[in-house]
Amino acid sequence: MRVLGIETSCDETGVAIYDSDRGLLAHALYSQTAIHAQWGGVVPELASRDHVRKTLPLIEEVLGGAGLAGKDLDGIAYTKGPGLVGALLIGAMLGRTLGFAWGIPAIGVHHLEGHLLAPFLEPEPPAFPFLALLVSGGHTELVKVEKLGKYEILGDTLDDAAGEAFDKTAKLLGLGYPGGAALAKLAERGSSGRFHFPRPMTDRPGLDFSFSGLKTFALNTIEANEKDDQTRADIARAFEEAVVETLTIKCRRALRETGLRTLVVAGGVGANTALRHALHVMCKKLEALLYFPRLEFCTDNGAMIAYVGCQRLLAGAQDDLSVEVYPRWPLDRLE
């Protein structure tokens, strides 16, 4: 089965074609970072307008790259939620329209399910069941993944997601947008130990997260110290260490409580080098397996949507001709 995947949940337009026999045939991604940078964050209306401009040309590019035409496809998958409602509607309307025109099924896909299963795009994917750390700008969750469509949320963020905390702290440090990667780069020049940030909610039972306090702690630390380059780097280092250690502690706790021996890390923050290193060390000590998507599939992309859509269509899932999107869509309510 060949499935076209369309991702338009936020500020990246992703398109891909996945073949159930041959794997990923082609994919393309357009990022709107330059558009939103001047505003210091994503502007929903601008994101929607740019999806209108970019999605169809990317579909044509991917079809050409795979040497296929619309009549060669067996299905279309588009991101149904969660995300920005206007952006979601662009992908949903286009996916539904092309499916009707080409006479093939079109199905809405959960954005977070795409992230959870992104490692299955690799030649050696993880085996079910596994524990997943879903960590991005909008989500920080620990999820027990039993099989396709069966997910149990073990821990969630009570306020800011880890990626959001990275971006907001980066802004406090005077870094550009998006700030997460810039903060991590600055932290590489920082000295460990000069500042110490708290590890929120690690001194109590449970698997939930809270990162808003780290942002406040960063603000107070910045205001109480000189603004020279080394001090900024040292603060960035301390902040990153606090987030990484907090995530690592919660992953270790979740692996021990569930008895699972496989950890999958998905989402944009999964590209953070310090986090990857810390989790490798932890999993080695626990004799657990660790999986990441390749770096280009950590952030939003069409390949993960095409893969999940393919698996769901093969399992018999289907949608009617209505166009529905869900800006908020808890993962554990997914069929």
TrEMBL record:
Its cofactor is Fe(2+). GO terms for biological process: tRNA threonylcarbamoyladenosine modification. Residues 24-307 form the Gcp-like domain. It catalyses: L-threonylcarbamoyladenylate + adenosine(37) in tRNA = N(6)-L-threonylcarbamoyladenosine(37) in tRNA + AMP + H(+). It is an enzyme of class 2 (transferase). Pfam families: TsaD. The keyword tRNA processing applies. Signal peptide: none annotated. GO terms for molecular function: iron ion binding; tRNA N(6)-L-threonylcarbamoyladenine synthase activity. The keyword Transferase applies. PROSITE patterns: GLYCOPROTEASE (PS01016). Its EC number is 2.3.1.234. It is found in: Cytoplasm. GO terms for cellular component: cytoplasm. Substrate binds at residues 134-138, 167, 180, 272. Binds 1 Fe(2+) ion per subunit. InterPro entries: ATPase_NBD (IPR043129), Gcp-like_dom (IPR000905), KAE1/TsaD (IPR017861), Peptidase_M22_CS (IPR017860), TsaD (IPR022450). Fe cation binds at residues 111, 115, 300. Required for the formation of a threonylcarbamoyl group on adenosine at position 37 (t(6)A37) in tRNAs that read codons beginning with adenine. Is involved in the transfer of the threonylcarbamoyl moiety of threonylcarbamoyl-AMP (TC-AMP) to the N6 group of A37, together with TsaE and TsaB. TsaD likely plays a direct catalytic role in this reaction. This is tRNA N6-adenosine threonylcarbamoyltransferase. It comes from Aquicella siphonis.
